[in-house]
Amino acid sequence: MQRTFVAIKPDAVQRGLIGEIIQKFEKKGFKIIGLKLLQLDRKTAEKHYEEHVGKPFFENLVNFITSGPIVAMVLEGVDAVNAVRKLMGATNPVNADVGTIRADYAHTMERNVVHGSDSPESAEREIAIFFDEPELVPGWKRDLDERFIGA
Ligand code: IDP
Ligand code: MG
User: Distance between CA 27 and CA 77 in Å, rounded?
Assistant: First the structure.
């Protein structure tokens, strides 16, 4: 079992896609163990995207991610980091595999509707930026667990 951090970006929130995107993760079998709507301040956004400091798109990225509310989530599942990235599709929606969230809902890289951690280390770092440990419910027993993962 692994945790990953997912954010529904401001473009998707504005477009009324929160429910549909969350539903994809739920239907796939990920367990939601943290969930909230918030608007990022600049400092937190810069921390979240610190690996991109200095890149030409950094300023636009921070402006965009702070432009409106986002939905922050922690998902738990088997190989969750990779599995979520697969479900999201490539960064540039033009290259995203058909059926992925970015292929279905996004048109450009600058407005690609979702964020997902790129490694277990990033996941732990990002979860800590967005959630205090008491805000998470890591232990809840989902009745469907046996159906999804046979456990
Ligand atoms: P990821 O979201 O698929 O992990 P990253 O490379 O971590 O992609 O980039 C973070 C975000 O920055 C992307 O989701 C995208 O919105 C934006 N981005 C990445 N590369 C570019 C670029 O070359 N031009 C414009 N925006 C970019
Ligand atoms: Mg990334």
Answer: 12
The candidate with the shortest Cα–Cα distance to 30, out of 56, 55, 5, is 5
Show the domains of the chain with their CATH numbers.
Answer: 2-134 (3.30.70.141)
Q: Is the CB of 82 under 6 A from ligand 1?
A: no
C-alpha–C-alpha distance, residues 29 and 134, integer Å: 23
**Cβ of residue 18 lying under 6 Å from some atom of ligand 1:** no
> What whole-number percentage of the chain has pLDDT above 70?
99
Output the six-digit token pair for 79.
């190989």
Q: Return d(Cα 120, Cα 142) in angstroms, integer.
A: 23
- Of 61, 63, 100, 113, which is best to mutate to test ligand 1, by the most ligand atoms within 8 angstroms of its C-beta? 61
- Looking at residue 151, what is its pLDDT? 64
